[in-house]
Amino acid sequence: MSAYHPLNEAEAIEIARTLPGLFSPGAELTSREIGDGNLNLVFHIKDASASRSIIMKQALPYAKVVGESWPLTLDRARIESEALLLEGTLCPGLVPHVHLYDPEMSLIVMEDLSDHVIMRKGLIEGNRYPLFADHISTFLANTLFFTSDLGMNQQEKKEQVKRFINPELCKITEDLIFDDPYRDADTNNFAESIRDEAEMLWHDGELHLEIALLRHKFLTHAQALLHGDLHTGSVFIREDSTKVIDPEFAYYGPMGFDIGAVIANLLLNYAGQEGWTRDEAERVAYRAYLLETVREVWNGFETKFRKLWDDQIQDRMSEASTAFQDVYVKSVLQDAIGFAGAKMIRRIVGLAHVADIDTLTDDATRERAQRLALAVGKALVKLNRRAVTIDEVIEIAEQQS
Ligand code: ADP
Ligand code: MG
Ligand code: MG
Ligand code: MG
After folding, report:
1. Residues in binding site for ATP
2. What InterPro entries does UniProt report for this protein, alphabetically (predicted)?
3. Which of these, 380, 389, 266, lies nearest to 400 by C-alpha position?
């Protein structure tokens, strides 16, 4: 393959032809770019007659942010492919199979998951996914335990931290989640109708202290290899299957950041439900389903993580102690709650929003959803260091709505 340049659809087909073992020579291939085009190109390449297809994801050297170009390292394609491979060994079946990574073109060739839907879309349509909590809690427990100092050789872990140094993508998170929403920043993006809410965020000292502590933890706590962007747009789902995609933000950070991302995105959908489920009884039931899923995600994570701990750590006496395990798990819960709150807040006033709320067509309904998401988000951030159980999260959501 030649030197790096953004591929067009015809070039994507030519590259697909050269990949060993995928398409037969002379196959008639079609190619369609299906990404949203802000950071990456995503090509869907198909051989209709053999009903075979693949996805090719290529990193672009810039991000389009508020009309400007923001240079962004192509190294994130390496990080994404290495994270997918590692997650695939730790959680078989829960990520797409990677056929190939091409460093020259910053290109990942992977399994086509078009028979799944993006979970955010599925939740907006009111679907339920009975296996999601079990699958995602397995993903979280296995990836977080086995990449941490608990679940791997502590010298090898340090080497692994080096492979996943991701400063530019981390800076996006540091700025957009932990900084800009709390001041009058140019990147902020909110309707004038909720300016009162935004201004309250800029002047809330209690909130600023908690956000500073969370930001500091994100910066310094190299606890486990995170996915780093685990919202419901990074989950492909069916009733019987869950696949996590898009770990280009992967780096060593606090476990609660990934768990909090899942919780936040379930709660953002919860906040939008007034617009999505018009019938009140149905809405109450769907919201109960979402909150039950939050509870099951945490409880599933805790059970599986503690089991791994009990099974894997017997020789290092101090770490084998139950008291240490209890303190450790409690601090992961507290972090998850704080990060969940921060993620909810930024999706309302910060640069990047979520369709669960933004695509509500009625202005008044959308505004109520935004105010609800902010109320829940702020309450979670303020709770975080005091939290003892996941039930407190459920209670906050129920009380605010
Ligand atoms: P980005 O990092 O630019 O957000 P994603 O990896 O999230 O890129 O992919 C963007 C979109 O491309 C997804 O929402 C999905 O529609 C499509 N896509 C990505 N990976 C696959 C895949 N393995 N199979 C099918 N579609 C995919
Ligand atoms: Mg995208
Ligand atoms: Mg991405
Ligand atoms: Mg994505």
Report:
1. 40, 57, 111-113, 246-248
2. Aminoglycoside_PTrfase, Kinase-like_dom_sf, Methylthioribose_kinase
3. 380
Q: Which of 33, 42, 354 is the pocket-test mutation for ligand 1 (most atoms within 8 Å of CB)? A: 42
Could you tell me if the CB of 50 is within 6 A of ligand 1? no
Domain C-terminal end among 61, 83, 111: 111
Residue 367 lies in a domain: yes
Query: Considering every ligand atom, which ligand is closest to the CA of 248?
Result: 3
Q: Which residues contact 323 (CB under 8 A, 6 or more apart)?
A: none
Residue 347 sits at the vertex; the CA angle it makes with 233 and 260, to the nearest 5 degrees, is 65
Question: Is 189 found in the same domain as 81?
Answer: no
Same domain, 223 and 139: yes
**DSSP 8-state symbol, 73:** -
Q: Tell me which of 111, 140, 157 is where a domain ends.
A: 111
Question: Ligand 1 test: best mutation among 31, 33, 53, 57, most atoms within 8 Å of CB?
Answer: 57
Q: Evaluate: CB of 59 within 6 angstroms of ligand 1.
A: no
Ligand closest to the CA atom of residue 228: 3
Specify the residue with its C-alpha closest to ligand 1, atom 4: 246
The interface pTM score, or ipTM, of the predicted complex is 0.97
Sequence ranges of the binding site for substrate = 229, 346
Span from the CA of 14 to the centroid of ligand 1 (angstroms): 21
Look at residue 350 and tell me if it is in a domain.
yes
Give the start-end residues of each E strand in 155-292.
224-226, 235-238, 241-244, 251-253
User: Per-residue pLDDT for the chain (401 aa), expressed as one digit of tens each?
Assistant: 579 999 999 999 999 999 999 999 889 999 999 997 688 999 999 998 878 999 999 999 988 665 557 889 999 999 999 999 999 999 999 999 999 999 999 999 999 999 999 999 999 999 999 999 999 999 999 999 999 999 999 999 999 999 999 999 999 999 999 999 999 999 999 999 999 999 999 999 999 999 999 999 999 999 999 999 999 999 999 999 999 999 999 999 999 999 999 999 999 999 999 999 999 999 999 999 999 999 999 999 999 999 999 999 877 777 778 999 999 999 999 999 999 999 999 999 999 999 999 999 999 999 999 999 999 999 999 999 999 999 999 999 999 98
In a domain, 1, yes or no: no
- Surrounding ion ligand 2 within 5 Å at CB are 36
- Split into its structural domains, the chain has a count of 2
Closest by alpha carbon to 373, among 257, 273, 292, 299? Answer: 273
Closest by CA to 381, choosing from 371, 372, 393, is 393
Q: Is the CB of 140 under 6 A from ligand 1?
A: no
Largest CA distance in the chain: 65
Residue 75 structure tokens = 């190294």
Q: Is 95 a pocket residue for ligand 1 (Cβ < 6 Å)? A: no
